[in-house]
Amino acid sequence: MNLRKIFLIAGYVILAGFAGVWMISCSKGPGQKMIIVTRVPVDIFHPGDTETVSAWQGSTLVMVRPTDNNSKPEVLTSGFYSACSPHVSYDGTHILFSGQKEKNDPWHVWEMNLKKKTVRQVTHCKESCYTPYYLPGNRLVFTREMPDTGTGKFLTLFTMNLDGTGLQQITFHPNNDFITTILKDGRILMRSEQIYPEKRPAKYLAMRPNGTKIELFYKGAPGTRPGIRVHEMNDGMIWFTEQNAGNPKKEDIVKIRYNRSLHSEVHCTANIPGDFYSVLPADSGDLFVSFRKPGDPSFGLFTFSTARRKIEKTLLADHQYHYLDPVCVQPYKKPRNLPNELMLSYPTGLLMSQNINLTEDSIPGSKATRIEVLGMDHSLGIIRVSQDGSFFLKIPADMPFRIQTLDEKKNVVLGPSDWLWLRPFERRGCIGCHEDPELAPENVVPMAVNHFPVILPLDSTQMLKRSETFKLGDFHR
Amino acid sequence: MRSKRLIYLGVVIVVIGLLGIPAHKLARKHVNYMTAVEDHPLMCTSCHLHMPNSGLIYKAVNKTYLSPFNLAISPDGNKLYVVAQESSALLVVDNQTGEVTDRIAVGKQPHTVIVSRDGKVAFVSNQWADNVYKIDLTSAKVIDTLKTGNGPAGLVLSKDEKFLYVVDSYSNQVSVIDVKRKTEKKRLVAGNNPTGVALSPSGDLVYVTSRRVLPRPYRTPITTEMTVIDAVKQRVKERKMFRDAYVMENVAFTPTGDMAVATLIRPKNLIPSIQVEEGFMMTHGFGIIEPGENGKIIQLLTDEPNAYYSDPFDVVISPNGKRAYISSSGVDMIQVLDLDRVRKLIAESTPEELHNYSNNRGISSRYVLKRISTGANPKGLVLSPDGKYLYVAERLDDKIAVINTATLETEKQIDLGGPRKITVARKGRRLFNNSGRTFQNQYGCYTCHPDAGEDGLVYNMAGVGMGRNVTNTQTLRDIGDIPPYKWNGHNQSVYKQDGMRFSTFLTRTEPFNYDDLDALASYIMTRIKNPPNLMYNPTGELTATQKRGEKIFFRTHTNCGKEIPYKSRCYVCHPPPDFTDKLPENVGSLSETDDSIPFDTPQLNNLYNASPYLHDGRALSLEEIWTKYDPGDRHGITSDMTKDQLNDLVQFLKSLRDAQYYSKYYSDEYKPLLKELYKNHYFQDKNQHNHK
């Protein structure tokens, strides 16, 4: 064999290799990629249940190639009693998932190498850990069940390094929090549902991965409940399912625009007979959906044409199992790795509001002149705000609190707010109280920041004194 | 013989090895110091190839681009006239073939081009030459040079085309030029840093925008002026005030004159910049001016709650008055506004609602029809006479985008033929002008540093507390040789200035990667030029007043003959060429809200149009530095000076030009003083900085 022939053969081999890789990985529509889906025994999962965790006992992760009609689902987690909530790494080679080795084990976060099918345990907490997501910077975020300290069990978010070190709690309120996606801007989007002291509707909140700058991202109509898996696409659309206001057992597919998330919702599957549970948008604009036809016992995996608004193709369906929560196995762009301004040794954070009387929910004739900061079981203090309605507080870090506004007679004008917290050294600003979240602030110096912050909690003698005769500048940092 | 050679080779290797290890360590130490990180690639070329600001390497590595800035179109729509700002040229482009058919040399830093109604003549303002060229378009020749005020920018012809209104952007005036007589008939006082200009359809009004805010008391709300000129009487008729807005670059009238639309930015400099998520830094939009003295002034945003469209520059309105097009130069987009919806919104809303809308980031969905992506840094716009095409000057791509206004799609790009190679500094300039590296694109470097200078605002960056340590924006022009940076002097290099802390407290998003940081630093370090100081020092020859001021600047004894302590002499802390000793000083300007630190001595080049002054912008004028804020003679010894002497000193300070000028020249009279100064500490300090 001469050298020319060797080069030629080598060339063909390389070309064939490239073609093979292209055939496998390059795709433009639904179907050419691998999809991992959670297979759940039909008697375990009932949509509309007030389940708090999408961790289904007996569930299994399976991988399918949607275009290949003959391919059988490949079981990925045969060594697990339960496995669900997969999230694919940015290079498309690994997944994080929550799993139970044995029936009575707590749920832990695991990582699987998709090529070698090897797994390793990432979390080792006593309590169960669910719904892990990769974060930029070799970290992950997950939901952890917190022990009951007298006010109930809450689901709280934690981050840690992929090697299991550097554990950090990032949410600090009596809510059930689930990560729903990592936004391309680098923030965590979570579904948060207050459960103490009273239940409040679930909503999507966005915050930085260090638990700072939390803000409302999406709130559905009364009676709806957004799902816990969200997909943000390159065209700026964000897809998820939402429990129907009229029928809690039915979910619709909803899309919103990232740019104006609070006022851009489009219900894509209203009036389509059948139930939807999960949605995975494809690059083509069509969707993979977990769908159940009327009368069917289980959810299957289908393609859904957004143009024709109809279910097109069955990918997986069987009466024994639901097929839920599809995710696509492919490399994708890392979200932004947001900088971290926190100093964890700092005991406090700062909170400034520009004008407490700037609100959408104002009561005619009432004007707030003070605020009361409420802790979990006690008041942290009543403070007179500045003349322009601004306040500036220094509050212990990582402690939940709520704010209500009061008038001169200390009657409640508005509130209490949802739970808030400040991380160590966090500096946080608000424009008003329950103001239109699309407002930007007026460009004026808030009078309160011309002086040192009021340090909370005030003790009872201080409270009386401050509330009656508070002089700006009394407090030192 | 052979073994000898081997021994020599071995010795050489050992010597190189012995020298190489410490050299590598030293290089690593140096790079770590300059970049303030420990993992920046050890690439000498990052700085030493791409950052020299003069000499052969600079010339070899860098290119002169075209940088199309503004453009005009012939009345028949067949030709485009494009101002190539960086190449000081007017390009004539055949609109059909997309070819550049003529390149006419114009003055320094040309700004605007307009074409007469018959299409025979063009006028080009030369911002750094203080004149306007009149060009015969048939012969492609400059036929007249019209003298103007300082920094001619926007241009408009009167309805009868007998008068040319020239916006003098640096001297804050409008020159009214008699075109036939080629003389300046009068100058009118405009706002602060005026630029854009438009003639009302009836021809009786001229609107002039301005970019900088008017002087106002310390830390109070800002106001920017729109000057209204009566074009019949050629007098200022009214000064319309835009509260909370600035950088009003351009303005356009609807064909019926029912409104004028101006681009603007609504900064949030008075609020601690702690919640960028909620628009706590910048918002961007446009202003509507209704006709008549009692006509409303309305401001609306083009931003959205989670997306900002920064640095709006030009605005044009379709011939039917139904659409406006705005170039959002910081995000490479054209925003298409439905003006009928804007009219409806205004008609339906109460004044209070309209005020609220000026801060509402969601309202734009009511009138922004579409956002069209463009090439890098879209600036000037022009519509074809029939309104069917919109032409966009893509400044940092050296191209003109052609947008079909029916489909609102880009049909083609006209390549103006700039250098193909994108140099590191050019890449840095793109990064500088783009807001993509701040959270949700809310602002770019350019936003606070327009034209790489400073925006004249005082910000509360809230690095630690809130309401404390407010700082006056500093220029980025000509700062390559004057580390440290920031008022507190904590940053020993531009690398550190734009590094991790910068992303934590300013851009609030992922930091620049090292390639981008290299490019950005390269752009800044290659010396962004100051405009020539043609207003106060056009030739280098000082006036008698300035000479007296210079003498005071270099004085060593008070009026009473008492020797001034060394450190209290002006020239000691502010020596030429940069007029800074690059050392921290406490000149008694600390306020109660400042941490107790000395401030890095600022450079003084081109400070004549950089008000306000001092680290926190308290001094509205140079005079105030000493008359109001230096009661204890800590900022030099000035209390013995007469009012005339202070005036002389101020006039001298206003005469200061770019540093390169002073590196070649300084008056013999003061050379001995400077020599002595350098011996004392100046060079020692410089060495300390450069050799760490």
In the CATH hierarchy, what is the class of the largest domain in chain A?
Answer: Mainly Beta
Average pLDDT level of chain A: 88
Percent helix of chain B: 10-25%
Task: Briefly note the CATH topology name of the largest domain in chain B.
Answer: Methylamine Dehydrogenase, Chain H
What is the name of the CATH superfamily of the largest domain in chain B? YVTN repeat-like/Quinoprotein amine dehydrogenase
Number of strand elements of chain A:
33
Give the CATH superfamily of the largest domain in chain A.
TolB, C-terminal domain
| Biggest sheet details of chain A | 5 strands, antiparallel
| CA gyration radius of chain A, whole angstroms | 25 Å
Helix percent of chain A reads under 10%
With helices defined by DSSP (H or I, 4 residues minimum), what is the helix count of chain B?
A: 16
User: How many strands, which pairing sense, and closed or not: the largest β-sheet of chain B?
Assistant: 4 strands, antiparallel
Q: How many beta-strand segments of chain B?
A: 32
- Morphology call of chain A: globular
